[in-house]
Amino acid sequence: xxxxxxxxxxxxxxxxxxxxxxxxxxxxxxxxxxxxxxxxxxxxxxxxxxxxxxxxxxxxxxxxxxxxxxxxxxxxxxxxxxxxxxxxxxxxxxxxxxxxxxxxxxxxxxxxxxxxxxxxxxxxxxxxxxxxxxxxxxxxxxxxxxxxxxxxxxxxxxxxxxxxxxxxxxxxxxxxxxxxxxxxxxxxxxxxxxxxxxxxxxxxxxxxxxxxxxxxxxxxxxxxxxxxxxxxxxxxxxxxxxxxxxxxxxxxxxxxxxxxxxxxxxxxxxxxxxxxxxxxxxxxxxxxxxxxxxxxxxxxxxxxxxxxxxxxxxxxxxxxxxxxxxxxxxxx
Amino acid sequence: xxxxxxxxxxxxxxxxxxxxxxxxxxxxxxxxxxxxxxxxxxxxxxxxxxxxxxxxxxxxxxxxxxxxxxxxxxxxxxxxxxxxxxxxxxxxxxxxxxxxxxxxxxxxxxxxxxxxxxxxxxxxxxxxxxxxxxxxxxxxxxxxxxxxxxxxxxxxxxxxxxxxxxxxxxxxxxxxxxxxxxxxxxxxxxxxxxxxxxxxxxxxxxxxxxxxxxxxxxxxxxxxxxxxxxxxxxxxxxxxxxxxxxxxxxxxxxxxxxxxxxxxxxxxxxxxxxxxxxxxxxxxxxxxxxxxxxxxxxxxxxxxxxxxxxxxxxxxxxxxxxxxxxxxxxxx
Lengths: 332, 332
Hints:
The first copy, chain A, has helices at 12-24, 72-88, 109-126, 178-189, 199-208, 210-217, 224-231, 244-255, 263-266, 270-275, and strands at 34-36, 43-46, 51-60, 93-103, 131-139, 144-152, 169-173, 236-240, 258-261, 281-286, 297-303, 309-311, 314-315. In chain A, 33% of the residues lie in helices and 23% in strands.
């Protein structure tokens, strides 16, 4: 599935914008919703139900990814996956992306080709029918990927963070802490003596722990479960990107309820999943008596404790990742 | 209109993401098309005619702007203006933006507040009713602004680059070379002895040439003229962002026609407008006998010379700005 980057590749500075685009665009598909794809001032996308869901995200080399650890293919895959999950968390079916990339002129064209391949394969695997309808190329000293993703609510109301009610069932779909475990391994064993990300050492970590490293670098979030949850009547839902504790508190605060997790249901994953970011699972609530659709699993219940996150009835201090105060400035 | 940045401002690293957002979001409006604005995993926007126009753009400190020259307010204004013009160039009415910003943790919050004010005022002036429906904050060593803009075709077909026909009238709306003149002045006189952008010298340039500097740093493109052109039956249209020569060639190639400019109609501006980037005017073609709506002015005609740009019947070599090979890596 993954195409290795060629070692002999012209740089994007040597090629210029037009010839770089000519290498990237054929690797992408515009998808079923594209009425007009890339090539004009703007794209035109179908919005069958008269609305569209939109979310945007910036991925920056250093705080968000490191080329010493991620392949370009993985970067593209993750950029797609994380944005598709935000669309899914509204109960929408992802339809399209636009992608803007800023890169140093010295970047080999093969890096952008790899990102394009990862975007394409990530869309095909996680949101069949969705495509890349447009984009932009810019220059920067820091490789930066901006993705904006769109979705179709297919006539349904969006599933918000604010709809959880006391008595609802709390359910979770997707990974629980694997992305954080993978990142911890990379920081602990994929760095050189100075603590900087190191490709050779990262490859060794990857060989020893392929699933945990993949969960961090090329996650497979349960995108299709978003629509399934909405159809089943989910009362609230969000993408778990900042750790289960912090994201659970967001539903608790928006809905004015308490989220009481069942420690036994979460089992040994509980501590890691609560603190660890980037799992990109879905946390949702369902009315009493509704069976959460697979792959959702019941992990607790909604209780009358406004804004609180609890485990087995005891409140916890919900903390998480902050993109500014949580980053030390290393650019990997 | 412009609020000066305060000199005493906490950094966004000190504030963290939540408190930074709490300072920015109240400065923005979500606009008339927002069914659900910022605050959930994604926004929901109305698409009354079952389609939406979408364009995306990355603005990077160094190649695209310099804080030594631009105020934060001007950055926000320009980020809005350039994206709104791409929407207008499809014949669409701009409805919404999403904005993702990556900034060093040491950035004063006042910088992001200024950008938000510029976005807000730019939208209010150029596309009343449009708003910011969502966004993202990230960390980076380089200040980077990613804007994705949306528009409503109101039932009309999009105006493409490929629709010009021999015999059509060629018309232009907006500035002709002023942005390039302003940038040339800033490079010539707004830099220090080492050629680096210098705030004090730039202020002197601004005092001497307020209109040319404003055309570069806070342009007023003819956004409303895009819908007017579409209603009048424009056969092709684009945003003139890379110089009139290079952008004219895009229509010529996409339509398989020649664009023959009337040298007298362009007058003294011709040379600068042809080579100079970032004017963000609109270049459009109209069927014979159709009067281009104001502020469009007739500047030539469409002739049977596929892919060529001509002045008074003589072909020219259409060149322009390239974001990779045209940038020397200075980060200003």
